Amino acid sequence: MKHFSISLLVVLLLFSCKQGPKTSEEDPQPVAQLATTPEEGKKLMETKCYLCHNPSVPENGQRIAPPMVAVKAHYLDAYTDKESFVKGIMEFVKSPSEEKTMMRGAVRRFGLMPTQQFPEEEIRKIAEYLYDYQIEEPDWFKEHWMDRRGDSLYNKGKKLEVAPVKQTPKEMGMKFAQKTQKVLGKNLMGTIQNKSVDEAVAFCNERAYPLTDSMSTNFNARIKRVSDKPRNPENAANTSELAYIETFKKEVAAGGSIEPILKEENGKVYFYYPIVTNSMCLNCHGTPGKTIQTDVVQHLSRLYPDDKATGYDVNEVRGIWSIVFDAPEDSN
Prior knowledge:
Elements: H1 38-53, H2 68-78, H3 82-94, H4 104-110, H5 120-132, H6 141-148, H7 169-194, H8 197-219, E1 221-226, H9 239-254, E2 261-265, E3 268-276, H10 282-285, H11 294-303, E4 317-326
Antiparallel strand pairs: 1-4, 2-3, 3-4
Helix pairs in contact: 1-5, 3-5, 7-8, 8-11
């Protein structure tokens, strides 16, 4: 079970890309450079990639993927110019495979990144930021890398100083959803990685609600995950939430970047954002007997006799985050 695909519902980058020398016989196809700010690339990296590749996660069994600086270091080791570096990342994220990976040790430890659909422009912005700027790294990484490669330029680039800015309601809602997803995902994927998918089903049954409630308390918000095809009846979407789910289904099917839906009413912000499946999700939410193993199907049937949360494929809306919190005083 330890080689199941690991990464989150949510989550971005990789363990690596093509093997080969730093130059190739064929020139890479040009990759268009985007007119974007470094702050935008940094924010995308932190919201998309750090769900799994967070540099602050300790090494005591809690890490579910290598830190982003390790990804950057391996790509710089293979691609010295920016165009090839960006192209390499974009190609891997589009179609991860063991044949392409350069980080075989990481794949053995964590599993291969599941196939997910990300807007191409967002991947490019993240890749450009990685190449141009230094990023946060764990205290242990420099010594780890130098012992093995001896290359002190593994995290080269300019230093970006970002002044603190008061968060908008949209940013607050995204933070609440992503932080909660990170807590749930870290525990869920750790259970799959260290035990089994069957054990992960038990974890969701016993621990998902208490963990979500603790995050609600932490953020002084009401945080829920709801669906039109719930596994637990308590996660059934109401009429308004069902309408938002249908809206997100159309947007995800059309491709491109997805924006949250927000409403403000009586001093409260109502925030909605889709939960989109990746290949890891199909271990419990795919097709019984095909992507869901027989013993897992039996366990699900015992715990959830009215389970509706199966039959999904990758890149489908399985539900939404439904979050309510106090509106900032100057949000209007």
